[in-house]
Amino acid sequence: MSLLDDLRAALGDRAVLTDPAETAGYSSDWRRLYSGLPLAVIRPSSTDQVVRAVTLCAKAGVAIIPQGGNTSMVGGAVPSVDGTEIVLSLERLRALRAIDPVDLTMTVEAGVTLAAAQAMAAEQGMLLPLSISSEGSAQIGGVLATNAGGNNTLRFGNARDLVLGLEVVLADGQVWHGLRHLHKDNTGYALRQVFVGSEGTLGIITAAVLRLQPGVTARASAFCALPSVEQALALLARLRARDAGALHAFEYMSGGSVDLVLAHIEGVARPVEAAAHYVLVDCAASGPEGAAQALQDRLEDVLGAALEAGELTDAALAQNEAQRLAFWKIREEHAEAQKRAGASIKNDISVPLAALPELMDAAAAACRALVPGIRIAPFGHLGDGNIHFNLVQPTGAGGAAFLAQSEPLMEAVGEVVRRLSGSFSAEHGVGRLKTGMMQSWRGGVELDLMRRIKSALDPAGRLNPRVIFPAKNAEDAAG
């Protein structure tokens, strides 16, 4: 029997897709930067089926590309073009295995979308605080494999900060049963953290125990116009001084990036006067009746003081949930708006907060020097220093010609980031897009340690090849 016959026998005929019409959605990344040709797409429905599939592929010497919701911004889950690799989709592992309102934990399978997991927690009066723009389609397995950040990192940390335990299928088909619910467990290496952020190169996450928070009973949000990034940091300091625990998100949007949203996304309107910079402030709390008004009053007091100090030029407070969601729609549609505006080059970078004003000015100047007319459209998580310093093709320019300048533009931004002691990949991961940057940014002992871990857990290199590590030759890079 062939490998595909063995997989059909193990998983069922409909769990093994080979028709190009059915595999197309699994063969390209969201940004359409990479496309491949899988030998097949397999869709196991349980951990046992994942084990069987991985064991069969290992025996046949066939590489596996683990895939969640396929929302990677860096081409992290795309098969090669030669038709020799299996895409393993976790989308059918969708069970809520347990939820504990006393311990504030939930155990979910890898194919549950982040939005669905949030809803499951909310039904029990709890909050899963991780929130990202693609949460409607991003799946828990992929979210953890990439250590997603998102809007609430300021308050609750990245995905890895919410993980208590994991269930992982290893490259040889063994299962690490690490679904522990313990908030304290100091017994050797924290193996769960080895797999979180590994981008599917060390094992396949099939389930996770996630840390929850008490449910939110009060929210207060504001959309603010500011004259400078320095003033945005001043506002952040005011909010932290008044009520740091209530501040869940502090999202930055440049004037140019908001203009793109208004031009390309239906149903949005600017809630404040036009400005060069905007921030979306989102506060939340748990408390008795009256907590919502108290939270709104505290936010209004802070904004009033900031207006008097000249740190704001305008601000709008959400008067109801519909207005709050309208504010968030402007922020969440940035990626889609930029996609519709033309070709874009994305820089997912982070620097210390105090360096943010210099980052914005210096990186913009460097890019404009290379491409006159380039549209600078940064936005992101100002509260934790993570900015998506995105670049959109000049109006009327050709998309292909603009993308051909990706390397010098990314290098120009990267040089500024390096000088400011930042990172070239804050939350999106390395994927295939940024492997060429690893040697210069993480070379030496650090990259060598990563290679040793990869070699120990996947000695044959069959899990998500071409991701994270620099290509050894041109043929590997092209694959």
Automatic annotation (TrEMBL):
Keyword Flavoprotein appears in the UniProt entry: yes
Keywords: FAD, Flavoprotein
InterPro entries (UniProt xref): FAD-bd_oxidored_4_C (IPR004113), FAD-bd_PCMH (IPR016166), FAD-bd_PCMH-like_sf (IPR036318), FAD-bd_PCMH_sub1 (IPR016167), FAD-bd_PCMH_sub2 (IPR016169), FAD-linked_Oxase-like_C (IPR016164), FAD-oxidored/transferase_4 (IPR051264), Oxid_FAD_bind_N (IPR006094)
Single GO BP term: respiratory electron transport chain
GO molecular function, one term: catalytic activity
Pfam families, alphabetized: FAD-oxidase_C (PF02913), FAD_binding_4 (PF01565)
Top-rank lineage group of the source organism: Bacteria
Occurrences of domain FAD-binding PCMH-type (ranges): 34-215
Family: Belongs to the FAD-binding oxidoreductase/transferase type 4 family.
PANTHER family in UniProt: BLL6224 PROTEIN, D-2-HYDROXYGLUTARATE DEHYDROGENASE, MITOCHONDRIAL
Protein name: FAD-binding oxidoreductase
Organism encoding this protein: Acidisoma silvae
